[in-house]
Amino acid sequence: MTYNQKIWLGVLLLCTLFWGAVISGACSLYNRAARLNAHQAQSEFAARHSLPPCSQQSAQASTSPRNG
């Protein structure tokens, strides 16, 4: 292999490593953002639907007229 071929092979290897690192970092950031959004959506769902059914029933019972 000539000197120029070795240089081009080195440049190609460095470019491959660089773009591999860029793509890997982008995928890592995307996965982290997706996990954070999923956790936030899960938290919002839990916050909306966390009222115990007893409190709703007792509120209805206190406002409804009693027979007797």
Description:
- By secondary structure, the chain is mainly α.
- It has one domain (3-60).
- 84% of the residues lie in helices and 0% in strands.
- The protein has two helices and no strands.
- The longest helix is centred in the middle third of the chain and has 46 residues, at 3-48.
- The protein is rod-shaped, with a radius of gyration of 30 Å.
- 0% of the residues are buried.
- The mean pLDDT is 79.
Beta strands, count: 0
Q: Residue ranges: pLDDT <50 for 5 or more in a row?
A: none
The total of helices stands at 2
Largest sheet: none
β-sheet strand percentage: under 5%
Mean pLDDT: 79
Helix vs. strand class: mainly alpha
Radius of gyration: 30 Å
Question: How do the SSEs run, as a string of H and E?
Answer: HH
What is the total number of structural domains? 1
Distance between the termini: 103 Å
The helicity comes to: over 70%
Regarding quaternary structure, what we see is single chain
Indicate the overall shape: rod-shaped
Summarize the structure.
This protein is mostly helical.
Keywords, separated by commas or semicolons:
single chain; 0% strand; 84% helix; 68 residues; mainly alpha
Topology:
Layout: H1 3-48, H2 53-63
